[in-house]
Here is the input.
Amino acid sequence: MTKEAWNQKGGTGTNRPTCLICLAYLTCLTASAPASDVPPSPALVAAHLNQAESLKPNAAANYDEALKALTKKIAAKLDAREKELSQESARPALLAGIPADVLAQARTLAGDESRLREFLKKGAPFPLLLALTAERNPEACSAREAWRAQLRRFDQAAYLEQLVSQYRSFVRELDTTVGPQSHKEMPEATFPFPAALTLKGQIVDAEAELARLRYEAVLRAKLNEMLRAVANLRYLIAAEALVNESRALLEQTVQSIEGRVKSGLANQSELLGLQSDLAMLDARRVTLQREAVTARARASALLNLPPDCEWGVPAAAGAPGALPSLDASLRLAAARSQDLKMAQREAGLMELMVRMAETELLPRGSAGHSRLAPSTGAEAGPTRSEMAAFPDRPDVNAARAAFGVNAAYLDELRVRVVQAQREQDAAAARVKLEVQEALFACQAAELELKALDEAVLPKAKQNFENVRQRYTAGAVSLDAYVAAGREFLEAQLKREAALRERAGAWAGWQDAVGVGVAGELSHDGSK
Here is the structure.
């Protein structure tokens, strides 16, 4: 078109800008038109489709079957853990010595506080008290519920694995025809739930095992604490009975001396001495009564009962069996100690967490597994090398700014692994020391009780009987008679205290090796 024709058609004046815009638009359409309408070759299309299929996360053979097998395995683990929680189907090892009917009775009484309080007034058998402790103790119940809550992670792992696989399958198969194929960048990252990194079965299993060990540790401590509480309560009741018996005998002597003083056959000083001894026994009896009130409140707290709950005389736990040697005790602690096992599990769990963090932060640069590598799935078409989708693993260190934070975080985790290993060594040394100290305490308590039973108490009793007969015959003084009675009373109180000390030492040994008193009970309730 000539210049003159352009001007005649209105190319000048106010219409010129509009015409220029239209011309530019037509030019763009002409430039963007395909040079040829020939479609891509079938081989090129097939190559693209084959490589896209091979890069799918679910492209492996029998992928659905593997997911079903994983879900089934997780469900089986959860079922096994749930059975451990049910004392009806599988009782904890710490309660293995308690008969099933006693456990059933404890479950019935645990839900009826008024009936339980009436039962305790009559004096409960020791195995039943242990079963009630497992059912009603607040700390043991809290640890059991924490274990139960931890088992819910198995369901999360099963559901999340299936959800993530479905999500990745969707976004990997999604394709667009406009713009760069950046839609494949999202599945390069894995997204654990904010709760924890427990998507993998090993971590879930380790945390469930830790929760079980914590529950066993709390239950063991409370069972042995009930043993100490029962032994202390029995000592206080027996000591008060002995003091009352001695007081009654001394009061008869005081009445006799009062009559002799009135008749001039005894001195006033003898009467005053007896009255002082009587006042001391009264004070001792009041002290024992108040200690018994505190002991009952402590035992009631173990059963989640009010402190004013009345208790009868509880049945004794029975004499412990033969004390194992030091080597046998150490072997038992290595196999049963919850503290030692928890330290070992903590170290193993920390190593698993490091492996998880390395997988999340420092993976190979393959599609669907990396948070850090650039998108490689879409660009790695058949026109490139097939290994383009699998570049070499980058050398990640703190010197590279993009990965410095992650590298520092991994360094911290590795140091914490070493810390957990050192804590495991410290726990092993601590358990060995506790076993040796507890074994010494048990041996000392046994020797003291044996000396009291075989020498001190029989001789004190024999001496008191002889002195009383001679005092009645007028062969010895009143002071000698009172001194013999006081010596006999102290020997009896020492024996009751030795029984309490032996029970406490035995409970300490069981705490050290990781066993509970219920595991040592026979079916008749004795040890």
Observations:
- The mean pLDDT is 75.
- The radius of gyration is 41 Å.
- DSSP finds 14 helices and no strands in the chain.
